[in-house]
Amino acid sequence: MTGGPLIDGLQYAKWSEKIFRQLREGGVDAVHVTITYHENFRETVHNIEQWNRWFETYPDLIFQGRTGSDVELARQTGRTAIFFGSQNPSCMEDDIGLVEILHTLGLRFMQLTYNNQSLLASGCYESEDTGITRMGREVIAEMNRVGLVVDMSHSGERSTLEAVEHSSRPIAITHANPASWHTALRNKSETVLRALSQSGGMLGFSVYPHHLKGGNACRLQDFCEMIARTADLMGVHQIGIGTDLCQDQPDSVVEWMRVGRWTKSIDYGEGSAAAPGFPDMPDWFSDNRHFNRISEGLKAVGMTSEEVNAVMGENWLRFFETSFGGSADQTRKVPRAAE
Amino acid sequence: MTGGPLIDGLQYAKWSEKIFRQLREGGVDAVHVTITYHENFRETVHNIEQWNRWFETYPDLIFQGRTGSDVELARQTGRTAIFFGSQNPSCMEDDIGLVEILHTLGLRFMQLTYNNQSLLASGCYESEDTGITRMGREVIAEMNRVGLVVDMSHSGERSTLEAVEHSSRPIAITHANPASWHTALRNKSETVLRALSQSGGMLGFSVYPHHLKGGNACRLQDFCEMIARTADLMGVHQIGIGTDLCQDQPDSVVEWMRVGRWTKSIDYGEGSAAAPGFPDMPDWFSDNRHFNRISEGLKAVGMTSEEVNAVMGENWLRFFETSFGGSADQTRKVPRAAE
Hints:
Two copies of one chain form a homodimer. Helices cover about 40% and strands about 10% of the residues of chain A. In chain A, strands 1, 2, 3, 4, 5 and 6 form a six-stranded parallel beta sheet that branches. By secondary structure, chain A is an alpha/beta fold. The first copy, chain A, has one domain (about 5-325): TIM Barrel (Alpha-Beta Barrel).
């Protein structure tokens, strides 16, 4: 186990007491969880209601994280802080006023797109990436104001570079890997990774097999060497983990993630007709008890303990501490920062 | 001006920069504002979005109050803390999970009914008051848990007495007067007022003409004498002001308040075909600059400065401090109490 905080930059598990207990067994202090994809605002609120039930039912295991200081609270009380995020802007519908409402309800990350064109930007599966839209620029400014992190994990190259440029605060790519290591629409070019790091943004390394060189046959050493090489490119303080763990989800969920309500036919996304479901995870990471293997693997490829601590959580913690509060008019925002 | 905090227990003005400045001129430290009547959840959120725009536009005049300590923050920074409330449970639809969601968004008071039967209780205009419903008991427990105050201002006698009994925390009647002073469906019996005070609840005295003996011809002295007599009945620490000020509202709004969507015909509520609109206010109280007249009036009828301070704000402040935080599992709730 790392001596610093352990933070995962993205998971979308089929949550259960079993998984909450595995978070504790694995020593996970905080995790950014996807609570909504294509759900509209009211449906997203219903998902938050389900999380509130879990927080009420398992108060000794989890609680809702709202600020970076909640990571320290999690460590002090032996619980996992759960931070909400959306992988698509459907939750804000066409209403910029919902950005602050969702932030008040605890949303801390929002992808400007999933795989398709949204009202805000272009997804990485569109043939044409037209960049950030007129509304997209307004929404980025509002997200910057309230402290809702722009996440471009599923967005196109141009949209991502324009988001880095338009955002007055560092953005994140919570779950992806370098395309130079494994070519995939979802992995990112060195141009994007450089722009991200130079702007103070964060990359979370994904363990999702479609993002791995060799898929689930990828060896832990290969994964850790990729991280070390990316540290050379981006700096060791702009990177973290974002496993994209989808533990225990049925294949119907990956179909919902890909198809939502935008088509009446099937879209396989990163999968295929031959392999339409969730891929099996690599044997070295199948649930939250296995982060220590990544820590050990990073040491094994030559990273120092300080570098490992930075990658396994300290970098995300610093990013959380500076990203989740309001930006403008602190005199007004500070009293509400503890929200 | 009173030396203690000045808090109004209910207003539903047509808010504007003019009125926000009058709040400051009048030295109002905090006000419970009605943000929704018959609006469903999404419509209520839209009303909160409008309030967020006002908070962003007038940060030197107002901010959203969430805890009792925000009243002190208001006094320290020379602003007015705005606390949200609903005069009907339409905002929670038929979904108990929305109680916590609305509390997270800042709702601090919710009437179990307006004038009609709701899913939770009976309104004071129903011929039959069947008391708290099955769902009503569940919702009261949830409101107690999260720190959302039960307000029975518009409810029937039996429902109100049962709410006092079922609620594990003190409830409020934010805007009404004793029926023994002025008979009206909206004013409250001594039985209700005694049960309210014995349970630690609060009554806010209304300046709305339909609740006043003699209507808007009621003299300030009559109003203040009524308050002094009610202090003898309830104790001077269970009473405050709840003006029900509806400043600058067009008559179309009072029709919405009364008719909502429950009937296709007209309902005059406390008004009449001859006087369907908002009544004129008494000449001694027409806007937020006139609270000092009530303070002086209370002294003129023999109340001590300590008693006047209690009635003008200290009682509401104590009630705010003990009512807006979560009740159960403080270890989990405390980190979120500042919400």
